[in-house]
Amino acid sequence: MENQPLPPIGPILEAYIKDNRTYKAALARALNVSPQNLIRMRKQDDLSMGRLWQLSHILRHNFIGDIAAKLPADYTGAMQEALAEKDKAIAALQSELEAMTKERDIYKDLVKR
User: Which residues form a coiled coil (predicted)?
Assistant: First the structure.
């Protein structure tokens, strides 16, 4: 297995703060850190899982999901398995819809006659 680089977390956090116009002082208080520590955090390439979890709850944004989205599509997990099940259900419903549409068209033709 080749070594995959970790996506830099600091820039993801920085972009979120900028895009959502989050008050940095309020975020630092909510995290119980100094504003200087928040600045350092925004420049770091990695953060602890606990800190990501805390940030996600405070900002009501799924930073862990953002990181997971950067993994290759063929990696498995509970979410991928649930999505695969839903994809199968959607495909079955689409095929049922096609069959019912054909049946409806046949009935329409019979009524016209």
Answer: 83-110
pLDDT, tens digit, for every residue of 13-62? 999 999 999 999 999 999 999 999 999 998 888 899 999 999 999 999 99
d(CA 74, CA 8): 21
Which sign, positive or negative, has the C-alpha torsion 27, 56, 32, 35?
A: negative
Residue carrying structure tokens 């019979």: 110
Give phi and psi for 47, each to the nearest 5.
-135, 155
